[in-house]
Structures
1.
Amino acid sequence: MDAKAFRELSAAELEQKLHDIRDELFKLKLRASVGQLENPARIRQLRRQVAVGETVQRESSRKQTSTEVEPAP
């Protein structure tokens, strides 16, 4: 999932998607510690998706706060 797809989600959907990705990442890390991982590159992909999702989330929250603050006279 790329940044454009994350930006199209609502705030609640974005939070849910990040939760799902983090959950999958946690499960993959557990499997990796036991040695039952088929695709170790998937961990890296998920970490990057979390980073992109959090960046988009931070951008939208900053955009909201900047529109709420009135400019100084």
Note: The chain has one domain: 3-68.
2.
Amino acid sequence: MNRIQLHKRVNKKLAKTKQLILNSFERTLTLLELNPYLGDLIPRKNISKKVILFYSTNKLFRLPLTNYWRLVYTVIKDENKTVVLILEFFNHKDYNKRFGYK
């Protein structure tokens, strides 16, 4: 069984989102429980050293949410389990800024 774990910053942002985005987020979590590798792997050329230090990993996945929001997560494999760690979610503008898209 896979486990979903939210990073502390994600919990604070959840309270501020609209219901539509929250519903999309919940649907996405359900899909990630079934397939942790559902998202697209963010190309390493788009991940700055600052971002790697911020998240403590360079293996980042992204999934689109409703209204052009993006969910960023990583997958941690252990001997007996796979853990999906939700790192952050962004609106389109902030996502592009963080990962250097224009």
Note: The chain has one domain: 3-99.
3.
Amino acid sequence: MKNIFQTAAWVLIFTWMAEGGERVVYVTTLATSHTHVGQNHTLSGLFYQTPGDSAWGFMARPNNRVYSMDAYLPSGGRILAMATHTGVQQSWDGGKTWKTTSDWRMTEVSVIRFAADNPRKLYAASPYGFYKTTDDGCTWTAHNNGLDNPDATFVTALVIDDSRPGRLLISTEAGLYESDDDGEHWHAGTLEVNHVRTLVQHPRNPEVWLAGTEDHGLYRSVNHGKNWQKCDSGILHATFYSIAFDPSHPDTLYAGGFQTGVYKSSDGGKTWKQFFSGLTSLDVHSLAVDPADSRCVYAGSTAQGVFLSQDGGLTWRNHGIAGGYVWTIKILNYER
């Protein structure tokens, strides 16, 4: 328990963030094997650490099922939001206190994102569609116009296009959908497969996108989503939950999913190699690359917590959060 929830570590990291620290690794979990001191509640929710640390701090309620999190980057880690099984929870003091800002109509929220230039505007998604607030979560409105297929409201990922203001993309059970007016209206994308699980945009070239699917493998677009091609050279699996670019060398990518271990591509997703040395769980639900050190790659498993590679994904070792059913790993860079 001492390695998981340490008051001293929490104070140091909060002070570091408040002073404008550079990077924080966040991990969201649906369950772990740890219990809260003096209670029978599972210590599950939002964990964090600075790269290079071995101990994990913990935020929020001890029995939370947290699917994803986000931070308003200019706040230096003070303004945070979580997508949880009970709705959206927000913090304005670096995670010391939290408030549920959604009501009974929003449950099993899977995705949360801040608008890049407005801390009061957030986007959220769930099995029931897409939601938006422009007043710090005081009111949320559903925007499902155009999500006419019954499976289209089951949203699994949301990406804000870095190059086109107002353009959003979501992955759903019915495939990809796009909006050009900040989520007010939606239309079907051109990727003609269903059960899309993850979607990512190239960190430097906004024309390049990759998508991971259930049962259909990986797809790549090099013209802003107008056309998609399957990119499965070297891949032996069909279900992928996570794709991560190396921010420093974006021709390097990692992908993971059901019983896949970790696949790595060094040519922008054209060809892939599988690596699993040291992984005691091959179910990988989330991946993240340290933007300051490309050798450090994090993988979140669906039963055995976090794994860390310090040689660019070639070998792995367990990195804590025992028994963790990890849903999302995110490394946020707070500029000084």
Note: Helices lie at 7-18.
